[in-house]
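Quick one: structure tokens for this chain, please?
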Amino acid sequence: MVLGAFSRNVPEYRLGLQFLTPEERRRIITYHSNGDITVRVICDYCSQTLESHPELALQSNPLQ
């Protein structure tokens, strides 16, 4: 699900992506062949819930 998009190029440093570790970058950033970048994000509540109940990740809408 797309939550937002930029209508023009935004440098990664403006988004704070330089503060991610290499492992975090591999896990949440996808670079597409057309130049688009997808950044997967999750709120703290959802992250904690999924850590406590990993089986919820198998559902299409686990927290609704």
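The helical segments are 12-15, 22-28, 44-52.
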